[in-house]
Amino acid sequence: MKHLIRGRTLSFHADPATTEHAYRYIEDGAIVVENGKILAIGGYEDLADAALPETDHRPHLILPGFIDTHLHFPQVQVIASWGAQLLDWLNIYTFPEETRFADPRHATRMAGKFLDLLLSHGTTSAVAFCSSHKASATALFTAAEARNMAMIAGKVMMDRNAPAGVLDTPQTSYDDSLALIRDWHGRGRQLYAISPRFAITSTPGQLEAAGALAREFPDCHIQTHLSENKAEIAYTLELYPQARDYLDIYETYGLLSPKTLLGHSIHLEPREIARMAETGSRAVFCPTSNLFLGSGLFDAEGLRDAGVVSGIATDIGGGTSYSMLQTLNEGYKILQLRGQKLHPFAAFHWATRGNALALGLENRIGTLDPGTDADFVILDARATPAMALRMERAETLAEELFVLQIMGDDRAVAQTYVAGKPMLTRG
Ligand code: GUN
Ligand code: ZN
Fold first, then answer.
1. Which residue numbers delimit the Amidohydrolase-related domain (predicted)?
2. Pocket lining: 70 vs ligand 1, CB cutoff 6 Å
């Protein structure tokens, strides 16, 4: 079944931060969708056909669906927990909450709500940590498959420095991850991420198990956390006294590659930045979380200049919004504090094609290229009275995008499409 979607299309084929002609914008544009994929994109007049059913989203923008490259599904009820920085926040709020995901009924209820929240915020793909319980990952993949969303997820591996209710062992974490990879990796749109939480909560034996999985399944992603907070780094280096630096721990166990997503990557040594570039490991910027937990200011430009590819992400529930628009807003402010700029074209590239590139999935998601999956977000820059008033004085596409970046949230999402299907009833 073919279907035409009409609106103002915007997508990127290069990074606006480094290339002048990086995007394609069609004022009266259209996308023809067939079997969940983009069949064609172009001007409406060129693609219109009396036989094709049409949905008209004018005057809204049609962009590739947002991609969130780092967040925690068992933290949907941890968001907005008061008064702590990373290690206390984990111990006081997060680990106890994650113990509840041992119950498959709880995990299933939360998985549905979590994915529906992503969709209402325009996010069509995400890379998620589950809890240490196998059932939590099963619940998330099952809910993602039911919505046909492309999810990358993994059960977190953690075998020390946390309450018994969230601990696994090197062997059970290996066995459960292996079973989940066999069940879910490459099934429909689902992909598996090997997910050692971070060095503090993994013994050397467990990082060895994670490294073994990484060797056995080189097309799985690997996700963990790196250098988010100064106290975290100090404690990590006490636990691994032989390591040259924090990154060296992950390298020792074979966990660095272009498939590796290193959440936060804030307080890095020059050697670490160089090794991230050499191994192709990705940094992931989590602006709302880094401000909320008082962690520090990500150096986007420094990493880019060193040749490190970065993603951008919400980090729910250290992060405070499911919205990639709000994430770009806070990202803009963090870079302001570093004397760096986040232009709206670079921002919208980052949340779409840029994050797809960070995942190595740019041939499947993150653009509006024919042959790729038909995941879209429909954005309304006049969604609130304050935005509509500001838009009276906006003359260019860049200004409109910046209004969305700074003032937008789920109210600006008029519709979200997953594999060609509209997912929101309010749109
Ligand atoms: N480091 C290890 N685990 C976590 C987590 O759940 N959230 C954040 N923000 N950092 C972490
Ligand atoms: Zn995280």
1. 62-422
2. no
